[in-house]
Structure formats: structure tokens, C-alpha cells
Amino acid sequence: MEGECCSSTEKRKQRQHHQEKPYRGIRMRKWGKWVAEIREPNKRSRIWLGSYSSPVAAARAYDTAVFYLRGPSARLNFPEYIVEEDGLHDMSAASIRKKATEVGARVDALESAGSSESNPTRLSVKPDLNEYPNPENSDDE
């Protein structure tokens, strides 16, 4: 049967695989955390990019690393979010890891803050630390 791409079981496996790995360069741990890592060019070693609570944060960390490793021609998950700096220069694995984890952590924080805003009961439990205490509610009266 030439011309046929895949059997129904292969299509089901592809769909399941897509749900498990929604973005390039990431995977989900058994306990639900998303992790990102990337292989160094021309080496067998990998650069660990961190563990995140959302797949988007892990994918953004991967994008940062792959951009610094492979340049503007890299295949990215979110090409619209890459900011080209003064110029790409050779960076060590440690420098790439640092930049990628900074981006991933920032996105993770924004993602988790966005989820708490959509849940008003959870938001009300946390006090606003920038707000001065109300003298009516103070205990020193």
C-alpha cells in the first residue's frame, strides 16, 4: 500500500506522543514536572535546562538555549519571543544554561501568577506584601 502514510495505530501513537510532548526539547516527568535539556552540537553531552511546572516555561528555556547554540536559523517553539542581543558569540554550556534557566524561571513565575489570578479564592489567601497594615486590625490596641 504505497501512498498510505500511517496505519490507525501509528496515527494514534503519533497523537499520543504529541500530547505527551507538546513542544520541542521538553518532556514530562512521572510526577508532573516539565523538564528541558538540549544536546551540545558535535558532542554526546547534554545541557540541563531545568525543571518547570508548565510546558511553556520548559519550552521557552529550550528555545533560549537552542538559539544561542544554533543561531537565528534554529527551529524554535516560540520564535516571536526570542530577542536578539548585540550579537551571537560563542558561549559556554554554563552560560547557555544560566540564560535558559533565567528565561524559564521568569515564564514559570508568570504562568503560575496567571493561574492564581484566575482563581480568586487562592488569590485572597495571600496577603499583599506591598500594602501597609490597617491600624483597625492591628493587635497593639
TrEMBL record:
List the molecular function annotations (GO) for this entry: DNA binding; DNA-binding transcription factor activity
GO CC terms for this protein? Answer: nucleus
Compartment(s) of residence: Nucleus
The biased composition feature labelled Polar residues covers 113-122
Record-linked InterPro entries: AP2/ERF_dom, AP2/ERF_dom_sf, DNA-bd_dom_sf
Give the UniProt keywords, A-Z: DNA-binding, Ethylene signaling pathway, Nucleus, Plant defense, Transcription, Transcription regulation
Query: What SUPFAM superfamilies does the record tag this protein with?
Result: DNA-binding domain
Q: Does the keyword Transcription apply?
A: yes
Give me any GO biological process, just one: defense response
Sequence ranges assigned to domain AP2/ERF in this UniProt record: 22-79
Q: SMART domains, alphabetically?
A: AP2
Q: Identify the stretch(es) annotated as Disordered.
A: 1-24, 108-141
* Purpose of the protein: Probably acts as a transcriptional activator. Binds to the GCC-box pathogenesis-related promoter element. May be involved in the regulation of gene expression by stress factors and by components of stress signal transduction pathways.
What family is reported?
Belongs to the AP2/ERF transcription factor family. ERF subfamily.
Query: Which protein, by its recorded name, is this?
Result: AP2/ERF domain-containing protein
